[in-house]
Design brief:
The chain has 372 residues and is an alpha/beta fold. The chain has helices at 33-42, 60-70, 89-101, 116-128, 142-148, 186-202, 205-214, 223-243, 259-269, 276-293, 299-311, 323-330, 360-368; strands spanning 5-10, 17-22, 47-53, 74-80, 109-114, 134-139, 153-158, 161-168, 173-177, 343-348, 351-355. The protein folds into 2 domains: 5-180, Rossmann fold; 186-371, Up-down Bundle (Dehydroquinate synthase-like, alpha domain). It has 13 helices and 11 strands. Strand 7 (153-158) and strand 8 (161-168) form a beta hairpin. The longest helix is centred in the middle third of the chain and has 21 residues, at 223-243. It is an enzyme of class 4 (lyase).
Length: 372
């Protein structure tokens, strides 16, 4: 049976690109579907810098390397240790040096194979080396498939702030093969569910209704169910990014729902202790508590969100949540405007608003809600 493949377009004028979603097509070498779509997307290419997570070195990264080599493309392969601590200045410097030593030039293409850490890091290496190389994303975790590989946010962390250095740099193509999820550890898979559920809360009420029935089933990883949920998530992200590519009008900031709290949890816990999606789940709960305290929404919203996050087995509480440590980190949030924090808060399922002038005591109470 022929493996299915579907395309979603990210419409950004001359920077538009396709997201291909399939199951099992990357391994089928005859004909090489990946190489064919790659060449259509990037045009002429004789050298690829293949930056991949160590966890996929012997699986999808190897398949891609073989297929590109068969197409007479020279490969420089760079392996990145799994985990958030790799999104660092020192790791980026090491990539730049390898690029220099391997004769990477402006016609080279960077291909990122891995989760959000590898995609963000490789994307920023592509954006910065010789002031910009073409770039292809091959996300291999649920979180990177539904979120970080789409939309062009690239970057690294500083010890005091997540994603503090980076750039907007769109890929030429995103290639999603759900086969990679079959070997993804459950904890990482579940972490990705937070970003899937986020789309239902922020802008797609019908998808939220679908998740109310299907969130718990996704862990079974039925390929058709996965492709549907990943497709809906990517459509949602592509819609928002097309409206506000560089987060200038404020529309794109809705994708940051739960993230003001989440980034502070990740930084204060120590990167990698709480996975990004786990922190987003807890951060969404804090944001919903805050929205209720600000009388923006009915408490039933929190109940519905709690039910779907719980069905996906996501954490809802963080016992170490400490306002005294989190508030200074939150002051570096990229949504801060004229020194004031702004939050993305829901007013109903499927709709959020950007809210400034939030009293600090209400923010502290929202952080404390994570102890309940
Ligand atoms: O793509 C976006 O825009 C998002 O905000 C999506 C987030 O889920 C993602 O974690 C993003 O990297 C956070 O961006 P940041 O600007 O808050 O660092």
């Amino acid at each position: 049976m022929t493996a299915p493949i579907e395309a979603i377009e990210v419409s950004l004028g001359e920077r538009s690109y396709p997201i291909w979603i399939t199951t099992g097509l990357t391994d089928s070498a005859e004909p090489s579907h990946f190489a064919k779509h790659f060449q259509t997307a990037v045009g002429d290419c004789t050298h690829v810098v293949l930056i991949h997570d160590a966890a996929v070195a012997n699986t999808i990264a190897r398949s891609i390397e073989q297929q590109l080599a068969q197409a007479d493309i020279r490969i420089t392969s760079i392996t990145i240790a799994s985990g958030e601590t790799s999104k660092s200045v020192s790791q980026l410097e090491s990539i730049w040096n390898t690029m220099l030593e391997s004769g990477t030039d402006r016609r080279s293409v960077v291909v990122a194979v891995g989760g959000g850490v590898v995609g963000d890091l490789a994307g920023f290496a592509a954006a910065s080396f010789t002031r910009g190389l073409r770039f292809v994303q091959v996300p291999t975790t649920l979180l990177s498939m539904v979120d970080s590989s789409v939309g062009g946010k690239t970057g690294i962390n500083l010890p005091g702030g997540k994603n503090m250095v980076g750039s907007f740099w769109q890929p030429q193509m995103v290639w999603i093969d759900t086969q990679s999820l079959s070997t993804l550890p459950d904890r990482d898979f579940i972490s990705g569910m937070a970003e899937v559920i986020k789309y239902g809360v922020i802008e797609d009420a019908d998808f939220f209704t679908w998740l109310q029935t299907n969130a718990s089933r996704m862990i079974e990883k039925d390929p058709e169910t996965l492709r549907y949920a990943i497709g809906k998530s990517c459509e949602s992200k592509a819609r928002v990014v097309a409206e506000d590519e560089r987060e200038t009008s404020g529309r794109r900031a809705i994708l940051n729902y739960g993230h003001t709290f989440a980034h502070a949890i990740e930084a204060t816990a120590g990167y990698g202790v709480c996975l990004h999606g786990e922190a987003v789940s807890i951060g969404m709960q804090m944001a919903a508590h805050l929205a209720i305290a600000m009388e923006l929404c009915d408490p039933s919203l929190l109940e519905e969100q709690t039910a779907v996050l719980s069905a996906a087995k996501l954490p809802l509480v963080w016992k170490d949540a400490d306002p005294e440590r989190m508030l200074p980190v939150m002051s570096h949030d990229k949504k801060v405007s004229h020194g004031k924090l702004r939050f993305v808060l829901p007013d109903r399922i499927g709709h959020v608003a950007m809210v400034g002038d939030v009293p600090t005591d209400k923010v502290i109470a929202a952080i404390h809600s994570a102890h309940l």
